[in-house]
Design brief:
Blueprint (H helix, E strand, L loop, with lengths): L4 H6 L12 H9 L3 E6 L4 E6 L7 H4 L13 H12 L5 E6 L5 E10 L5 E10 L1 H19 L3 E6 L4 E4 L1 H7 L10 H4 L2 H18 L1 E9 L5 E12 L5 E10 L1 H50 L4 H32 L8 E4 H18 L3 E6 L6 E4 L1 H17 L6 E12 L2 E10 L6 H6 L9 H7 L5 H11 L3 E6 L5 E11 L18 E5 L3 H13 L3 E5 L2 H9 L8 E5 L7 H12 L4 E6 L7 H7 L3 E4 L4 H11 L18 E3 L5 E5 L3 H11 L5 E5 L2 H10 L6 E4 L8 H9 L4 H5 L2 E5 L4 H9 L4 E4 L4 H12 L2 E3 L1
Parallel strand pairs: 12-14, 18-19, 18-20, 20-21, 21-22, 24-25, 24-26, 26-27, 27-28
Antiparallel strand pairs: 1-2, 1-5, 3-4, 4-5, 6-7, 6-10, 8-9, 9-10, 11-13, 13-17, 14-15, 15-17, 16-17, 23-29
Length: about 800
């Protein structure tokens, strides 16, 4: 059965309590109905009386050290106050928090016994928890309002500002000493109208309103804000005050813009990749359709010419398909940061010849003029990555041809811009008279999976990878690439890179015995760019050269020359009106046999040779023109046929035929059609071939007769045992030949790490698939060392 309220309130003693007179407690209880306490000189509680609502009981403190009732951080305060009281203070007054969480305000005094001796302490406590928590709440609210960045204000219903925090002045830029902030000054008219209209109506009706607008700072700057108003109501639920909180949302809006831009960028990237996959499907299926279709037609016809036509078309389509696949692989390596360069010394002009001879086929089909402006001070031999540099130039020229209409002009210019010791800076420029590129399109131009315009893919095809790959290659070479263009005014692509020149190598020079005063040249071409090129090249060699735009102008110059007559003529085959062959005939009639006529054309010489020779053409050189070709031709025309090139190095490498008839090679290849292809490629070399259809069989064949084989071509991905394991097994055999025999990987795994893995397994070299016959013969010649040149 529980205690009555009277029993709880009047209880004075508990087990262990002091038996001293308790009259003082009763008197104090009348005045303080919370808690009274008594303790000895060592602060040990001897008696206590408290209300039942207190969060500590008398029995819990009797015989305990008084400061222990307080939380840890308040104990030093309590102890200090008691020590001061013991030292003679009249009373101690302090506030602390109990371990249970309530706050108490204590008043303590010292007391003495009847003989006057100090006996201990007595005191009372009042529970101030509710008041303290309110004060704490007010304090942190005040701290937030006073120290926060937000604009906080409170106004009465007449609009008079009763409170404005420092954040409001910081946000608006006004001095707090200036007083209230008039709404007409700090809000735009539109926002102020919204606040006084829908804002006040919503606050009175619903207690809250939030709107967005602009705040006007003292210097006139507008900042975006979130404006919230709240009603402060009395007991009758009437709005008596309006509190305002204004937040600067500039950063929030910037974050939103950033997120939106990121979202749009991600969406564009996804769309670009989706479009890319669609284009890739189209670009791959188109040549595949041509390959399959032409092979089917060729198989079903008995006409040899028709078969050859079909197989030629299938071959062209297959090479186009391989180019697409190579672009995809290159882009994959770039994105995976696995794209590597391989530097070597090479004949730069010869590399340019190879490039232009390949792309010029397309230019001729579109009757375009392809001009190569190669400055004579550009080194003949350089140290760079020939394959990748050629890839960049080819890509830029191919694009220029693709996007330039028929009879347009494409110019590749290469000039030296700087030379320090053996390091040379070369500036490459590919310009065209094509469709041009707008500023907006240029932004996306070098981005993977993108083309300048969605209509580009529709009208011209392509994957949109070439420029992205080219730019990355140039950057890997420590160079840079950029574009200058306007829509409808053609485009100019530039890239500059540093390379090392290499001394030696063939370089065209005028034969020393030629008397420059006896050489007078006339170049006839309807292309202004080609005429300028002639003057540029001949000027570099101090040769006198005039130019004419067509046959009639050229004949007029021949008939009306002043001083020495022309003795060397460079004549374009296709001239407007009078063609080059007719012009040659007329020149020969006027000048006789003392004139040397060199016909220049992008067309195949065999198609015009007979007629040209009959008309009197002495020599033929193909477009695009190179300085060395022009100078060598002049040397020949001036009787320097016996002149020796510098260092005795021939301009063109001799044709090489390979004779491996005394050798036997082992080819490990599991795909039958690949074995047939290898047989067809190697037939003319007369090498003996044996095949293994997997790695295990290759090991077995070699182990049975190690001295029989001179080289092994090893595929990698084969059933039963792959090429890596087969190579390791051969190298582990107990036979000296097993350690020596050349093993060349023959695989479609062409990444750098793939090649390194092949070498690590014990192979000597690597050649990629699809098989390039020239590359294959180079590898065989390297290890078999038995070729002849003719």
């Amino acid at each position: 059965m529980g205690k009555t309220e009277d029993e709880i309130i009047t209880e004075e003693t508990v087990p262990g309590a002091d038996s001293m007179d308790m009259g003082w407690m009763a008197s104090f209880w009348e005045a303080f109905t919370e808690c009274v306490v008594q303790m000895d000189a060592q602060y040990v509680v001897t008696n206590i009386r408290c209300r039942a609502e207190c969060d500590f009981l008398m029995a819990e403190l009797i015989g305990k050290w008084f400061p222990d009732f307080a939380i840890e951080k308040d104990k030093p305060l309590v102890l200090n106050e008691l020590d001061q009281l013991k030292a003679g203070a009249q009373y101690a007054r302090f506030q602390c928090q109990s371990k249970a969480g309530s706050y108490y305000r204590w008043t303590l005094v010292a007391f003495h016994d009847k003989g006057g001796a100090f006996s201990g302490y007595r005191g009372v406590a009042v529970d101030v928890t509710e008041q303290t928590l309110k004060e704490i709440t007010l304090n942190w609210q005040r701290a937030i309002m006073e120290g926060g960045r937000d604009f906080v204000s409170i106004a009465d219903m007449e609009g008079k500002e009763l409170y404005t925090n420092p954040g409001a002045y910081k946000m608006t830029g006004y001095d707090p000493a200036s007083g209230a902030l008039p709404p007409e000054l700090i809000f735009t008219p539109e926002h102020l109208e919204a606040v006084r209209g829908e804002g006040l109506e919503s606050v009175i009706a619903n207690g809250v309103w939030t709107g967005w607008g602009n705040l006007v700072q003292k210097d006139g700057t507008l900042i975006p804000i979130e404006h919230s108003m709240f009603s402060v109501r009395n007991d009758l639920d009437e709005t008596i005050l309006i509190a305002t909180i204004i937040r600067d949302i500039t950063v929030f809006q910037e974050h939103e813009r950033t997120l939106e831009e990121a979202r749009k960028a991600a969406e564009l990237a996804n769309n670009a990749k989706s479009e890319f996959l669609s284009r890739m499907s189209h670009e791959i299926r188109t040549p595949m359709n041509a390959i399959i279709g032409m092979i089917n037609i060729g198989l079903n016809t008995g006409d040899i010419d028709r078969k050859n036509y079909c197989f030629t078309r299938a071959d062209n389509a297959s090479k186009h398909l391989l180019g697409i696949i190579n672009d995809i692989l290159d882009m994959s390596k770039i994105e995976a940061d696995r794209f590597e360069l391989s530097y070597s010394v090479f004949d730069f002009e010869k590399a340019l010849r190879d490039i232009t001879s390949m792309v010029n086929v397309s230019a001729v089909e579109k009757q375009q003029n392809l001009v190569i402006d190669l400055s004579y001070d550009v080194p003949s031999y350089i140290l760079s990555d020939e394959l990748r540099l050629s890839q960049v130039i080819t890509n830029l020229l191919t694009n220029a041809i693709k996007f330039t209409p028929e009879k347009g002009t494409i110019i590749l210019s290469i000039h030296k811009t700087e030379e320090i010791d053996d390091e040379v800076s070369l500036l490459f420029e590919v310009s065209d008279t094509g469709i041009g590129i707008s500023k907006e399109q240029q932004i996306r131009l070098f981005t993977p999976f993108n083309q300048a315009d969605s209509d580009i893919a529709l009208n011209f095809g392509g994957l949109g990878l070439g420029l992205a790959i080219s730019k990355r290659i140039v950057e890997l070479m420590d160079g840079e690439m950029w574009v200058e263009s306007e829509l409808g005014k053609g485009a100019r692509f530039f890239f500059i890179l540093k390379t090392k020149k290499v001394e030696g190598g063939y370089r065209a020079e005028l034969y020393k015995k030629i008397n420059l005063g006896k050489v007078r040249i006339l170049a006839v071409d309807d292309s202004e760019e080609t005429r300028d090129y002639f003057k540029h090249v001949m000027g570099a060699f101090n040769l006198q050269c005039d130019v004419a735009r067509d046959g009639p102008q050229a004949l007029h110059m021949v008939k009306n020359h002043s001083g020495k007559p022309y003795n060397i003529f460079f004549v374009d085959w296709k001239l407007p009106g009078m063609d080059g062959i007719e012009l040659t005939r007329r020149i020969k009639e006027i000048n006789g046999e003392n004139s040397n006529v060199i016909m220049i054309s992008a067309s195949d010489w065999s198609s015009i040779e007979s007629e040209a020779v009959t008309a009197g053409v002495d020599h033929f050189i193909a477009k695009p023109l190179f300085p060395s070709t022009l100078i060598d031709t002049i040397n020949i025309c001036m009787g320097a046929e016996a002149y020796e090139p510098i260092n005795g190095i021939e301009q063109e490498s001799p044709v090489r035929l390979f004779d491996f008839s005394e050798h036997t090679i082992l080819i490990a290849e599991d795909v039958e059609i690949n074995r047939e292809i290898m047989s067809a490629i190697l037939t003319e070399s007369e090498v003996s071939i044996e095949y293994a259809e997997n790695g295990k069989e290759a090991v077995s064949l070699f182990n049975a007769n190690p001295d029989k084989y001179d080289l092994i071509l090893m595929d990698i991905n084969m059933p039963e045992m792959d090429g890596y394991e087969a190579t390791r097994s051969i190298r582990a055999l107990n036979h000296s030949r097993a350690k020596e025999i050349p093993i060349v990987a023959m695989t479609a795994n062409v990444f750098k790490e793939d090649i390194e893995r092949c070498l690590a397994s014990g192979m000597n070299d690597h050649t990629g698939k699809p098989i390039d016959s020239d590359d294959l013969f180079r590898h065989l010649d390297k290890y078999l060392k038995n070729s002849v040149s003719i």
